[in-house]
Amino acid sequence: MMTLEFAVAAALFAGVVAYALFGGADFGSGFHDLTAGGARRGAPLRTLIDHSIGPVWEANHVWLIYVLVMWWTGFPESFAAAMTTLYVPLVLALVGIVLRGASFAFRKYSETLWQAKLFGIVFATSSVLAPFFLGTIVGALASGRVPAGGNGDPWSSWINPTALFTGFISVGTCAFLAATFLTADAARRGETALAAQLRIRSLVVGAGTGVVVFAGLIPIEHDAPTFWDGLTGRAAPVMALSALGGIATLVLLWRRRFGPARLSAVIAVAAVMAGWGIGQYPWVLVDQVSIAEGAGARATLQGLLVAVGIAAVIVAPALGYLFYLTQSPEWNGEERGGVKAGEGGSIRRGVAHWSGRLGN
């Protein structure tokens, strides 16, 4: 039965899924930046990453702000409990997001190679640590380690099998999404060699993440029994959809169908997130506070839904248009019938830019 509390919780969780998809692909690019190699060898990939995420990397964090505002306004007591218990991973995640953004911007304007390397290391490392700590927060909530009254143990609440596995799964899914998206971007720009390199990365990371996702289910049975019951019960069909989406993505990548592979990768990750939400339902804090118990005042919930409706009308089209522009032929230097003469020129200019720093 649809209730006002459930509607607000669903709107909140939609923001979580959106952040996992858009912000996740953004974070995952840092993993590939970190593992791209030296300045010369890694220049093509790093240039592609800059070109792909540059226009949208700040817009993606709109979803994080949306989630936090919806949570503290719609479910204030559970928000307070989580903040006073999980402040360590929260602070580490937020520091990572700030350092990541600053370093991404500063690296572009570095005058010497050592400066570019320094900011690149900070950007890439923060891109891995931020989703890891965000994942541990999810695991802490799902395993029932956040007490309703707050002020839970600041360490054991997120240093436990469920939370740590969720952190690793978060990093893996981000890297998988990013690799799939970057592969399609490289192929669309005519960078055949780079697309082939990223295709292998996508296959390896995708297979590894799939193993971690399902290996992570083993400790959950004993470490988070309530969450386990939800995952293996009502969430089982969605988890199966995630597995099918992941397998389909690997097959499409193997067959070099990069465009459709992006869609199946999105389905796989969205299904993982939906499985978490369905498995945790009806709890906000598992075994502690349910959605109905933790909801705020009725007038507040109604106001939130009105605000969400207004945002959907005003903000969603603007974000959609932004993403459309980044995929348009004009932005990517393509003609409508194919790649312009001198295809891949933007990548080669980026390689020259990175390589030119070797003399500084």
From TrEMBL:
Molecular-function GO term, any one = oxidoreductase activity, acting on diphenols and related substances as donors, oxygen as acceptor
Q: Which cellular components does GO assign to this protein?
A: cytochrome complex; plasma membrane
Keyword Membrane appears in the UniProt entry: yes
InterPro entries given in the database record: Cyt-d_oxidase_su2
Q: Which membrane topology term applies here?
A: Multi-pass membrane protein
Q: What is this protein called?
A: Cytochrome d ubiquinol oxidase subunit II
The protein's UniProt keywords, in alphabetical order, are: Cell membrane, Membrane, Oxidoreductase, Transmembrane, Transmembrane helix
Q: What is its EC number?
A: 1.10.3.-
Q: Which family does it belong to?
A: Belongs to the cytochrome ubiquinol oxidase subunit 2 family.
Phylogenetic classification of the source organism: Bacteria, Bacillati, Actinomycetota, Actinomycetes, Glycomycetales
Where do transmembrane segments lie in this chain? 79-106, 118-142, 162-182, 203-220, 235-254, 266-284, 304-326
> Which organism's genome codes for this protein?
Glycomyces lechevalierae
Under PANTHER family, the record lists:
CYTOCHROME BD2 SUBUNIT II (PTHR43141)
* GO BP terms, alphabetized: aerobic electron transport chain
Q: Where, per UniProt, does this protein localize?
A: Cell membrane
